[in-house]
Amino acid sequence: MIDLKNLTIKKAHESFLNGDFTVRQLVDEYLKVINEKNPTINAYLEIYKDIDEQIKNAEKMFTDGTATILTGIPIALKDIILFEGHIASASSKILENYVATYDSFVVEKFKKQGVIFLGRTNMDEFAMGSSTETSAYGVTRNPYDTSRVPGGSSGGSAAALAADMSLASLGTETCGSVRQPASFCGLVGLRTTYGSVSRSGVIAMGSSLDQVGPFGKNVNDVEILFDAMTGYDPKDSTSINDEMRLIKKDPIKKRIGVPREFLSGEGIDKDVLKNFEESCDKLKKAGYEIVDVELPSIKYSLAVYYIIMPAEVSSNLARYDGIRYGLHEDGKNLYEVYTKSRGKGFGKEARRRILLGTYILSHGYYDAYYNTALKVRQIIKDELALFFKDFDAFITPTAPSLPFKLGEKLNDPVSMYLSDIFSAPANLADIPAISIPSGKTENGLPFGIQITAPFLREDILFTIGKDFEKLV
Ligand code: GLN
To answer: How far is the CA of 130 from the centre of ligand 1 (A)?
Structure first.
């Protein structure tokens, strides 16, 4: 029996080297847990059929001496990241049988290192949601309490890891879809700097906001995964080039801001705030100066996000016309093919956002909504850039509430959207942020703290994160 609960990437790697267990033995343990728990949790939509081949390849790397720290590490993949020859459906009916014709940049990088992809995980349809309830393939349940949601949209990837059905997992973020489920499932989750990880081969939601991000059990695992997936990619025009990545970085100042006004809004759980204050005290103990700061524009982030994102969604999802990809419905004419295929293929939330986005971008409203939102996005970016001259980071809770009950917010989209309140500034400003477990309630539900750092300063998140982790 392998102690999966306490296993980390580093420990697994050492065990492979010491001969404590083999890649195959480890994968078999995970498959056993998947068999037992997945029928209830529904984290995986599919377990890949070529795992055996993947194991052989990883074992060969160990005998060849080409193995890296990620060789043989079993990982879960969000159903939105292309893996050649395997279905990627974005948990939508419209892509139900879509088989990826090429590898995404991240999968290509991980494949080279001999990572084992166990299967594809459930998510909110096209990554739209905060609970993994908008999937066309059923809800995913939170392993800490199966009457509650795991968060979203990468809820399947978070639940797979939290239930010991994988050793790490990959998700994507447009606004909080890695951090919020990480918080709800007691994990570390990273939103990466925009452009640091290529979007090539990742099904698009909001292209100016989307990024792939890793989940791990601790900060070190997330750092290992991030290092393996970041890099310039000429196939993504927004990928950050090597020259920019090498710009000299300021040393850490050990000063962290708390945007007080942002935390005083309605709808934030008292328990969440109390846990947050305790986390601030822990950081003080670790030698950080914690300062109340004013960041007056970030309170507009969520409103700005819910203009820019649907605008981009409506344009990105226009490609699903029933002809080129996925589901096709016959019709009397082309128009009917479009309407029937799209009507049948998209769920309620996807349709809501396509409609909103189309309205926002329509003649007469474009300036009032979309262009105004772009201007405010720039103000938020500028305000944060100024703030980061004196500070390493700012901190907030990751989510305003604890994991909520299944069905609780599903029919109240605005209350669901409010789950993203603390996530939005990082996505709009293209900067990295991390969620780290910060304790549990008496009933065992996890809390998370979010740290947001400047552009390309994931290193700051890892440093503060590791210091914090020691004190929880
Ligand atoms: N909750 C966000 C939304 O519904 C999550 C999007 C994301 O990060 N993919 O838009």
So the answer is: 6
